[in-house]
Amino acid sequence: MRKHRVAIELYYWPGIQGRGEFVRLLLEDAGAAYADVARQRKNGLRDMLRFLEGEEPGALPFAAPFVKVGKAVVSQTANVLAYLAPQLGLAPKDAARRAEASQIQLTLADFVGEIHDTHHPIAGSLYYEDQKAAAKRRAADFVKQRMPKYLGWLEKVLERNRSSGGQWLVGSACTYVDLSAFQIVEGLRYAFPNAMARLEAKLPRVIALRDRVAARPRIARYLKSKRRQPFNQMGIFRRYPELDAPAPRSRRR
After folding, report:
1. Are 193 and 140 found together in one domain?
2. Sign of the C-alpha dihedral, residues 71, 32, 183, 15?
3. Taking the complete model, does pTM exceed 0.85, yes or no?
4. What 3-state DSSP class applies to 8?
5. What is the pLDDT of residue 5?
6. Helix H or strand E encompassing 166
7. Domain coverage including residue 51
């Protein structure tokens, strides 16, 4: 890890993991000193809103998460990660590999959007209860088609990355996209436990990657700490049993 001398401020909504968790995992694994502003400061949420309303200098974020590093204000999750990871030693050094990592992260961002839309397929401004029928239809297709396709793609990426023996998504060392893949698996296990139980046997490399990330010392400490907020019904990953696949039948001996 490279020592990061400039304090990093993370701005994201308190009380949920959401998209901010992808940034937190990077910062935690790197051992970076950072402030989770809306959670740790008395007026942190107000300060975040001032940025979003254009009352602070620097680039104008459309939404959280965003980070402030010195005078730089950087938003969009994948962009934040691509900006911070090289400074923290969690990005490939080769330019082509960095582009590959960005490509994977942007695909994961598409995946996250589809996960969110399983419970809010009509509008984010509506309650889940106002769109349950549409959510059931959307989730059924997601569980059957989209979820296996995205996870299967990750499995193929790991299989093709022979430089790491299939251990990491890009190159021969852990990078920020591996941390993001870990979060995807964790979130899907929470939101769609039945569907994941059916799929995991087909994803040995993805699950092994998840376990490898979870065992990294700083990540392991973070997961046991109060800094790691639990999944809940306000984030991207939400557990609605009616949206999940049927429970796998137990095999009779």
Report:
1. yes
2. negative
3. yes
4. strand
5. 59
6. none
7. 8-88
Q: Are 145 and 171 in the same domain? A: yes
- With beta carbons less than 8 A apart as the criterion, state whether 151 and 206 touch: yes
- The Cα–Cα gap between 55 and 47 comes to 9
Domain boundary among 88, 121, 139: 88
Average pLDDT over residues 60-75: 97
Extract the tokens encoding 113.
């959007």
Rounded Cα–Cα distance for residues 205 and 125 (Å) = 37
Q: Would you state the structure tokens that stand for residue 204, as one six-digit string? A: 């040995």
Pick from 31, 18, 182: which is nearest to 8 by CA?
Answer: 31
Q: What is the reported pLDDT for 1? A: 43
Q: In whole angstroms, how large is the CA radius of gyration of the chain?
A: 18
β-bridge partners, 67: 10, 74
- Are 141 and 150 a contacting pair, CB within 8 Å? no
Please name every residue paired with 36 in a beta bridge, in sequence order, or none if there are none: 10
| Residue 204 and residue 116 share a domain | yes
Rounded Cα distance, 127 and 69, in Å: 35
Q: Residue 97 is encoded by which pair of tokens?
A: 């590999």
Across residues 125-135, what is the average pLDDT? 96
**Distance set, CA 24 to CA 30, 63, 180, 240 (Å):** 10, 17, 10, 25
CA distance 177 to 161: 13
Given a contact cutoff of 8 angstroms between Cβ atoms, the answer to whether 143 and 193 are in contact is no
